[in-house]
Amino acid sequence: MSRELVFPHWRSGATDGAQPPDIRPFDVLRCADLRGLRLEGLDLTGVTFFGCRLNGTSFAGSRLSGSRFNGCFSDMRGHPTRLPSQALPDTTGSHLYQGPGEHPGAGPHWPAVVTEAAWRAMTGDNTERYRAVRTLARIAYSPSFPLLGGFLDDEEWDVRIAALNGMRELLEAGRLQDSPGDGNALIRIGLRALGDANSLVTAAAADLGHAAGWPAKVLRELLEPVESRDDSEILLALRSAITLSRQGDPASVLATAFDAADHQRLLDLADPEVREEYLHVLGVLDVPLRSAWEKGLGDPSEAVRVAALSAARLLSTPLPSGLFEPLLADPAETARIETIFTLGHAGGFDRDAVERSLTDPSAEVRRLAAELLAGTDRE
To answer: Rounded to two decimals, what is the model's pTM?
Structure first.
């Protein structure tokens, strides 16, 4: 059974004295940065490489029968891509530098203005990469469209936004479907950014979603990894759910295909970031699941406890103040401060418990406790 691998990460030289990358026949690799990898002696029959970066990648001795390279790129300013001498794959639509005199039939053929922008987008500093990605989108050379997807994995948020805006503009101009291979793949890859950790990036992804008509099947697929064993994929699904909720649940996928209460197991995972985001989801989706909130408020991680307190304030019906009052004695000052804010939101708190915070070691906690008590006196 084929797999679709989006932004897979393997270290350079991964086949040199180490376990080779897990690529299987008929897999589809989307927007993978394979530069410097030695993918040698592997059975890559029928594998599709879509929007992959391939400078310094060696396929020597690998079986590439029936494989395809759609919108992939390597440039003569970097190390060549080494393909096997027999049974060349289909490289139509790709620009692959293979060194002087090697396999001219599969050699480079993108215009120089495109390769210049693509090279700078891969190798420049933050500003250069941002400008180069914008240039690639403006040039609108369809064989290079798959490369845009790869820049959604860039470490800089503004580069990711540039890629998303470029995709949206091409979609609105009716050009994105001209991409080699699967044009819809770029929409699927772009909408993964609904789960980005940066809110500006998720806003740009939402603009793309709106332009694409919020495809329900793609949105449901974004939420499915919440069942995954991969923490990064779980975070993607949780953050996507938060973004979709803020967008009013387009296509009603949250209402029909995502029940946050079914995923309490996430509070038992080792990664505190997953536990934080799950609590955030409970707040955003207005799920007053007491057992989950109790577990979050008692989490050993300060960051998770703080996230639980903050997220609880998103609930339309406040949880009982008695759940929060024990955290007035939390060892972390930040948690004690958040507790006072949350008690103010919930109301009906025990005044004696709050009055004990008037002698807290933290001046900020003392100040907020006094303000909370004064506010209730006026009421």
So the answer is: 0.91
- Please say whether the beta carbons of 189 and 31 come within 8 A: yes
Cα 330 versus chain centre, distance? 33
DSSP 79: P
Please give the Cα distance from 303 to 150 (Å, whole number).
Answer: 31
Low-confidence ranges of the chain (pLDDT < 50): 13-17, 104-105
How far is C-alpha 209 from the chain's CA centre?
15
Q: Which residues of 303-338 are buried (b: 16+ CB within 10 A; e: fewer)?
A: ebbbbbbbbbeebeebbebebbbebbebeeebbbbb
User: What is the pLDDT at residue 335?
Assistant: 98
Q: Which residue is it, tokens 């690529």?
A: 23
> In the chain, what is the straight-line distance between the N-terminal and C-terminal CA atoms, in Å?
65
**Among candidates 176, 164, 147, which has minimal Cα distance to 201?**
164
**Among residues 319, 232, 316, 239, which one has the least CA distance to residue 308?**
319
Residue 102 has a pLDDT of: 60
Q: Are 208 and 171 in contact (CB under 8 A)?
A: yes
What CA–CA distance (Å, rounded) separates 241 from 255? 11
Cβ neighbors of 252 (< 8 A, separation 6 or more) are: 216
Which own/partner contact pairs does 96-104 have at CB distance under 8 Å and 24+ positions apart?
96/54, 96/69, 96/72, 97/55, 98/74
Per DSSP, what are the bridge partners of residue 10?
none
Helix (H, G, I), strand (E, B) or coil at 369: helix
